Each structure stands twice: as structure tokens, then as C-alpha cells.
Amino acid sequence: MADVNISIAANSQDFTAAIQQVGASVAEMKSSAVKNFSAIKSSVSGVADQISNLGVTVNQALGAVRKVASAVSVAWNAVTEFQDASVRLAPLVGGLEESRRLCDALRDSAANGTSSFADLTSVATRLSSVFSDSRSVENWTKRFHDLAAGTGADMDRVVAQFVKAKASGYFGAGFLDTLSAKGVNIYAPIAEQTGMAEEELRKLASAGQLSFSQIEAALVSLTSGTGQFAGAAQRMSETAGGSVRTLVAQVEILFAKFAEPIVDSITPIIQQVAAALAVIGDVAGGVGSVVSAVFGAMSSGGFAGAGRVGGESLW
């Protein structure tokens, strides 16, 4: 009987030791799980903090840009309008350098005329469809500026008809009637150049048989040298109303020239901020995917009970 008791006691001690060993293993597993999940939590938290800090930096940069833009809003608008027009015209007139030169000339014309820079660049864009070099675009834009200033004609409408005629090679009566309604005798210079009677020219125009070259020469004559409308935009800028417009335009140009180097220095910052926002989006998306995968695995049983070990929360 004593032997049996000794045997049971010995087995009991072995069983207790085994239980204790299992308990130690469970504790070790718990500790390891806590450490691993803490590491994941710390890593996700660290990335989140970095994203947050980067967001603060981006907001600060955007705030600085807004303050500068607000402080020089008039100049800022003038500079960006000039830059946008230059880029838009570049492929039409032989590159950015030529388009900048053209826009400089148009800005000066706007400051000493009756049409805005936006109106003149719109006309230049239309004309670039039928003239391939920037000098021709510039000269014809100024001619139509003078013609519109001297007659009060709708410059955009007249230019649209001119472009259509140049593309076809012939002028119809519509274009000529538009000018005639504004007191422009387009037939007189053509009659002088060709020796034809004005009435005969009118008949040709009605039949759509006046060539583009004839009308082109007449328009050049009317807007060059001592022509009827040569320098009309400049003269209109010297009236009382024109002087006010000129003053405003000159101030805008002054501000624009002051702001150009500032805008040039700010532009790279804006581009960097845009790039940073793209990076934030990519990183945030990546972190979201990782966290989603972890919780997805937990909810599907892959980490059954991983959120809690030994009754204690890992989070």
C-alpha cells in the first residue's frame, strides 16, 4: 500500500510539473503575443503620427502660399493670366519663348488701348490657326485692335469672319457688310489698288469672288502708316475714359512685374505640396490596407482570441 501511495505521489508531482510547464509556455506565448501586437500597434501609430505631422507641414505651407497670394492678389492674377496665356499659345506660335514675347507685346497693347489682355490673347489664339508665326499673329492682333477701337465693331466676330475667309481663300459679303455697317469703306483701298470700280467690287463680294489677298491688302492699308484706323487704339487710350483704363492697366503691369519673381519662387513650393499630398494619399492607403488585413484576419478566426490573451486586452 505504501508503494502505491509513493507511486501516486510521484505521478502527481510529475503531473504538477507538466502543468506548470504548460503554464509557463502559455505565459511565454502570451508575452510574445503582447509584444508582437504592441509592435504592430506601435508601428501603425508611428506611421499615423508621421502622416499627421506631414499633414500639418502641408497645411502650413498652403497657409503661407495663401497669405502671399492674398497680399498680392491683383499682381498674382495678372501673372497667372500671363503665364496661362503663354503656355496656351506656345504650341501655336513656335514655342514658349515666342509665346512669352507675343504675350508681352499684347500686354503692352492692352495697357495702351481699349481691349483687355484677355480679349487680345483670345484674338491671337484665333489668328494663330491661320498664321503660323508669332510676328504675324502679333501684327494682325494689333490691326484688329485698332479696327475695333476706331469703329466699335465686335473684334471677336470680325476676327472669326476673317479667319474663316483666310481658310477658304475668299471673302463673302458678310465680313465686308459688318465693316460697312461701322462706317468702314473696305472697297475704296481695293479700288485704288486694283483700278476697279467700287460697285464692281461689291458685286464680286456678293458672289463670294473677292480674293483673300485683296481684302488683306485693304486691311493692311487701313491700319498702317497714315491709314484711317492706324493707331486708333492708342488714340482712344488718350481720352478721359481711356486714360483711366490705361492707368489701371499700367498699375496691373507694374504689380505683375513686381510679382513675377515671387510667383516663380512660390510655384516650386506649390508643386512640392501637391507631390506631398499624393504621397500622403499613397501611404495612408497602404496603412489602411495593412490594418484592414490584420482586423480581417482576427474577425475571420485566423487570430481567434488574439485580441485578448489570458483575459487581458492587447490593445
Protein described:
By secondary structure, the chain is mainly alpha-helical. The protein has twelve helices and four strands, in the order ααααααβαααβαααββ. The chain has helices at residues 2-71, 73-93, 96-111, 117-127, 134-151, 155-168, 173-180, 187-194, 198-206, 212-222, 232-236, 240-299, and strands at residues 170-171, 210-211, 308-309, 312-313. A hairpin with a 2-residue loop joins strand 3 and strand 4. It starts with a helix and ends with a strand.
Write the layout of secondary structure elements.
Blueprint: H1 2-71, H2 73-93, H3 96-111, H4 117-127, H5 134-151, H6 155-168, E1 170-171, H7 173-180, H8 187-194, H9 198-206, E2 210-211, H10 212-222, H11 232-236, H12 240-299, E3 308-309, E4 312-313
Antiparallel strand pairs: 1-2, 3-4
Instruction: Estimate what percentage of residues fall within beta strands.
Output: under 5%
Radius of gyration: 40 Å
* Main β-sheet description: 2 strands, antiparallel
Oligomer state of the chains in this structure = single chain
**Widest sheet: strand ordering:** 1-2
**In percent, how helical is the residue content?**
over 70%
Mean pLDDT: 73
The low-confidence parts are: 2-6
**Global geometry:** elongated
Summarize the structure.
By secondary structure, the chain is mostly helical. Helix 2 packs across helix 12 and helix 4 packs across helix 5.
